[in-house]
Design a protein that fits this description.
Elements (H helix, E strand, L loop, with lengths): L2 E5 L6 H11 L3 E4 H9 L3 H8 L1 H14 L5 E4 L8 H10 L2 E5 L2 H8 L15 H15 L2 E4 L5 H11 L7
Parallel strand pairs: 1-3, 1-4, 2-3, 4-5
């Protein structure tokens, strides 16, 4: 197992859990949203404002396909699952782990999402995104983690327990 790839809805805790998990397993951590912002020199919201949701989708997919890492926990943008090419690239990097968080919790964490740079059409809300994305998360995930009522530390520990034993560590 070279890397671990975290997927899930906006607000599911991919970045937070990813950092905790990386520390727990003595791995590096990378957040593809941060890579997008760094490489384009814009926030995700600025990309959405300038290029629309498709701009974020393109940038996310490009980052995923360019990733070349080992020993890394990778937190992906929530909309990464829209790109088959990106998900194929991520699957080759390591097991894909879906952080499944109840919609009510996501809504509390994200609110309307109108300032988070979400790849969301103006006529959509978080519930619409969940309906659209959940089947994609299900299809791409090698492992689903139920995150309901769990802290990031508890989620990271559960992931670590469910991973096959690592050699060479």
């Amino acid at each position: 197992m070279d890397n671990l790839v975290l997927i899930g809805m906006p607000g599911s805790g991919k970045s937070t859990v990813g950092r905790v998990l990386a520390q727990l397993l003595d791995m590096r951590f990378v957040d593809t949203d941060a890579l997008v912002e760094h490489h384009l020199g814009l926030s995700l919201q600025a990309i959405v404002d300038r290029d629309g949701p498709q701009g974020v989708l393109r940038a996310e997919a490009e980052e995923a396909m360019a990733l070349d890492c080992r020993g890394t926990v990778i937190a992906t943008g929530g909309s990464m699952v829209y790109s088959e090419a990106a998900m194929d690239a991520l699957t080759r990097l390591g097991p894909v782990i879906w952080l499944d968080v109840p919609l009510r919790t996501l809504q509390q964490r994200v609110g309307s999402g109108d300032k988070r740079g979400l790849a969301m059409r103006p006529d959509q809300n978080l519930s619409d995104l969940a309906v659209e994305r959940l089947p994609l998360y299900q299809r791409h995930a090698a492992l689903r983690i139920d995150c309901a009522n769990r802290t990031p530390q508890q989620v990271a520990s559960q992931i670590a327990r469910q991973l096959p034993a690592r050699t060479g560590t």
